[in-house]
Predict the structure.
Amino acid sequence: MRPTHHHLQGRDYAALEWGERGGVPTVLLHGYLDHAGAWSRVALGLDGWIVAYDHRGHGLSPHCGPGETYHFPDYLADLDALLGQIGPARLVGHSMGGTIASMYAGVRPEKVVALVTVDGLGLFDSSTQSAERMTQFLDEVARSPVNKVFPSVEAAAARLRHSNPAIDDAWARELAARILRPVEGGFTWTWDARHRIRGPIPYRHDNHAQFLRRIRCPALAVRPEHSPFAAADVAHLESLVPGIRRVTVPGATHMVHLDRPAELAAVIRSFLDAVDARPSTG
């Protein structure tokens, strides 16, 4: 694993890479309030050139400026800029990262060789909450949220362990250390607290469907056995992706890459190997 940076849309984004550069890269897209380092044990089980980067305002990547908030299309624009530099790629996205990857695969099909979503083909439909979402957005912007301060790295690591007992102590400390910064009284998360401000525009399944129907690459939906998403909603979204395959990881929760990293890596590697083995159409 080696730390790197990618200059995207005028900003330097922090990243981690594995393997030798060359060939078709696999780009790992993390979820909401997560970071590239969370993919570390999955990446070890994959082949070739692997790139995981911190989304804007996450991990070690820069925050948006004062008075700005985070808008979902900007995540797609960042990914578009990255693939403009490194070429077409296989995309693997967890949760929010899977939604980014699936939308992107629908609008830039020529840049996506294969798609894997890990409990992230879509979000909860909130189309009936337009007025409530706007009210919440204005209230949260006015409050200007801040992140919790921990007295030590160990205390932050314990918080991660509490959230996901599958993480051992050493890995929890490794994960926490990468996304903490010193402040008065201890340490706080590096991710921008403004991510806690919910976007004012509701997510709609019927809108996302337009992206999913346009996907042309081989696609795999990885489900954990214990997902927070309604099975009927997930099945509906999956049905919109042409030729999609489905795999369930036994015993896993939503944080599959932390619960069952070796099993997840094996599923992803098997799928990507099958994609690579397909006869060339060129």
